[in-house]
């Protein structure tokens, strides 16, 4: 029987590449994001391979999150795999000059949004005593870099919440894990630098950065292990990257 996967942040980057890969493996796919035009376009593309359902919501809106997930058509309502991927960095400023709006966005999206989505998905997993939840953390979950303050804080929270979920969901036989990538060339830096494309592209200049497809491939590997195998925590960086601040550039 086909498994159902719900992917947040599927309109771009890692989430989109994951949806594209899982479509080719014929999973039933629920793609989520705020940008409806992108969801429509992706749904059309993936429908050539599998059944796809789109949910447009802002993960910050707890009512919208629960209403969307609770009103899934029967065919998609039994979610086997949740990929908590939606998230971004907003700004890269020292704590003393950081923007409150940026802090709110990161905490509300990366932490609270992940919780709202998980809260809506978990009850059916506990009821059937199976499921798989993978959260996308970051190397920023494992270390802190200059001006990364709040973003790193949110990703440390993702790491802690994922560990907590694994403990709490252990009696239900649910697999829980996190994947922590280093620098991946997506729209991430464009969002962080508020549309400054030159500044964003400089982040990935002079070395072979991870691509969204590399992370999708790892997510598929993690999901496709035999059910008794749970990859709890995985850190992945480009070969050129040794830490958040040490990158070998040409
Ligand atoms: P992108 O900017 O390419 O994608 C971010 C995705 O998150 C988009 O699909 C966006 O959809 C969605 N999203 C953002 N805010 C919201 C919101 N309020 N409500 C719903 N969806 C939202 O970045 P990446 O693909 O790189 O990032 C994906 C995840 O990977 C993030 O959690 C990020 O922190 C993490 N990560 C990224 C790394 C990198 O270097 N790129 C490295 C390590 C981790 P939409 O705007 O349509 O809502
Ligand atoms: C994204 C990677 O290094 O910008 O999580 O924090 S980094």
From TrEMBL:
Keyword Oxidoreductase: yes
Regions annotated as coiled coil: none
InterPro entries, alphabetized: NAD(P)-bd_dom_sf, Sc_DH/Rdtase_CS, SDR_fam
Top-level division of the source organism's lineage: Bacteria
Gene3D superfamilies, per database record: NAD(P)-binding Rossmann-like Domain (3.40.50.720)
GO MF, one annotated term: oxidoreductase activity, acting on the CH-OH group of donors, NAD or NADP as acceptor
Pfam families hit by this protein: adh_short
UniProt keyword Protein transport, yes or no: no
Record's keyword terms, sorted: Oxidoreductase
Similarity section: Belongs to the short-chain dehydrogenases/reductases (SDR) family.
Record-given protein name: SDR family NAD(P)-dependent oxidoreductase
Lineage: Bacteria, Pseudomonadati, Bacteroidota, Flavobacteriia, Flavobacteriales
